[in-house]
Write a structure and sequence with these properties.
alpha+beta, extended, disordered N terminus
Amino acid sequence: MKRPKPLVFLTFTLWGLIWGSASARFEWRDVVTEVQLLPGGDVLVTDERTLWTDEDFGEAFICVPLEPGESLTLLEGGSLSHAGSSFYQQPCASGAAGQEIVVTHPERVQESRVRYRYRLSGTTDAYQDVVQWYWNILESDHAPIVGYRLRVNAPGPMALPYDAFVHSPGNPESLDVYFAPDRSAIEVTFGRIPDGYGVEVRYLMDPALFTLQGSAPGLEALLRDEARVTGVLERERAFAALRSHPAWMIVPLALVLLLGAGILRAYRRFGREPGVDKAMKYPFEPPSDLPPDLAAARAIIVGPIL
């Protein structure tokens, strides 16, 4: 085997180092989110999570998407594992409409347990017969999450037809949901959430628990819409599960076997190389009984005539 040239070897080594530095791994671990829905319509969120990487970082941040009329106020933040950290909020650096909440460390670290506590305003919809909180509590643009637990607390107990629903659109991972017997709280647990998947909560609550009041009825329409959304998401989940099934690995294997069978059939029929008619003479091949110089001269003379 030939040894690689020094320049080629150095080029591939540098490329490997650049690729390795560009593919640093980040993970959120043990995410615990506590949500308290207030009677006036505001929402208090306490979010604790550990950011881990195989390199290092100076800031840990999340971007909370907001629509017109919605606002976020950061109340508290910081690192629970590193002293001297600070926190602030700013528009999302990605350009998305929303607020970015940031914990800054005094030095670069590889792992940190951080806490964000903030207030959401304008995210609750009030109707005459229901109050709805429909929110993507986990941002969809995030590093992979290992261990996720969410608890949402309503202002008080209630009975049917008021209910709560949890969605993770397209996520093939299974979730565990616990609904308190008096419907005053819901708990959600995921073992793992891949990047690109969020967690939505739709809580339909008794308006008697709120000082925020609406004038138009909405419960029946919201339940119909939830049935529609649930049907769409179930179809997406079934398709995602089918697409990620291990049986799909058989398809490329079958194609390889089919290609191999075709090559084997061709080899058995024709051999390693196709046969060539040895008696074939090309028009421009000089006669073998003429001297080489005379054959060349004849080729020059006959060529223009042809």
